[in-house]
Amino acid sequence: MPDNGGNSSSKDFHLDVPAAGEGFFVKGASGCDWGMKNRLADMFNSKSGNTVMLAFDHGYIMGPTSGLERLDITVPPLIPYVDVLMSTRGAFRTCISAAVKKPICLRVNYDSSVLFDDMSNGGGIACDIRNAVRMNASCLAVQTFIGSPGEKNSLELLARTVDAGTDWGIPTLGVVAVGKQMERTEQFFLLATRMLAENGAQVVKSYYCEGFERVTSACPVPIVIAGGKKLPEEEALAMAWRAISEGAKGVDMGRNIFQARHPAAMARAVGKVVHEGFTAKEAHEYYVDILNTSGE
Ligand code: R5P
User: Residue 262 has what pLDDT?
Assistant: First the structure.
């Protein structure tokens, strides 16, 4: 038992200073428990508030996408320049060293392959929570098909994943898929992103669209944007800049990084936009400088 003798009586309770930990820098996460906040803090940079996630999960429905024919060759050189690795358990287990120090966002659902006209028709859990924990996942990613035939099924998968993730303190990334019959409008993304957040996703992945500032404003959790099909590097950087300027908290980008002429330089340039406030022009100049000095 501590000795109570000789203690001066406490007097400074700092009544004018809010208690630490009441607020939290990740949008919508103040009410989450400590473990989930800790994992979110691994994903989002506490200084910029943002994240660069590298998506290389395309093979789960597409097979060997251009640039990802050999995950073991393409991905490792990019790891130092991104904050989070997003892929499937098969990709991590076979192609990424378990000694990697970056948090992983694990795609835990499967969907129909691209051989089907509408991949939204069916999907299920590809990796359950026990195995996600075994993989040391910092986040669980689930695809959802709002406004498509697979809507009900994918919302069920999302809800069950959020339940399991909450039990273990692991956040869920709700991924907005755009079904064949849907258009990439502000109205659609307002609906889809809000639905995913209200159904429990702690982070939402969406596409950039006109009116994006209203989409991010109405979504109570952070939105990260997918890159989509390969664009010229300057355009991809401009899209990232517009998204961040309009409230996105980062990118979860694949093809616009690993299909770039110099993928590592592109990952670094995207990071300059996401974390350091570079404009698209500044980031592109930075990218070109690396290209020129590397001689590629
Ligand atoms: C999403 O469902 C895909 O599997 C990718 O993770 C996503 O499309 C991001 O990659 P990209 O930037 O190439 O669109």
Answer: 97
Residue nearest to atom 1 of ligand 1 (CA): 58
3-state secondary structure 2-54: CCCCCCCCCCCCCCCCCCCCCCCCCCCCCCCCHHHHHHHHHHCCCCCCCEEEE
- CB of residue 254 inside a 6 A radius of ligand 1: yes
Q: Is 205 helix (H, G, I), strand (E, B) or coil?
A: strand
Taking each helix axis from N to C end, the angle separating 280-294 and 233-245, rounded to the nearest 10 degrees, works out to 140
Instruction: Quote the Cα angle for 197-200-203, to 5°.
Output: 55
CB atoms within 10 A of CB 191: 17
pLDDT tops 90 at residue 16: no
**Position with higher pLDDT, 296 vs 92:** 92
Q: Which run of H or of E encompasses 80?
A: none
Q: Report the nearest atom of ligand 1 relative to the CA of 65.
A: 13
Task: For residues 1 and 7, give the distance between their C-alpha atoms in angstroms, rounded to a whole number.
Answer: 14
Helices and strands: H and E segment counts in the chain: 12, 10
**Helix, strand, coil share (%) of the chain residues, nearest 5:** 40, 15, 45
Q: What are phi and psi of 130, to 5 degrees?
A: -60, -40
What single string gives the DSSP state of each residue in 217-235?
Answer: HH-SS-EEEE--S---HHH
What spatial distance separates the first Cα and last Cα of the chain, rounded to whole Å? Answer: 68
Residue 27 among the catalytic residues: no
Q: Which tens digit of pLDDT belongs to each residue from 95-154?
A: 999 999 999 999 999 988 888 877 776 699 999 999 999 999 999 999 999 998 889 999
Left, alpha or beta for 63 (phi > 0: left; psi -120 to 50: alpha)? left
pTM of the full predicted structure? 0.93
Distance 58 CA to ligand 1 centre (A): 6
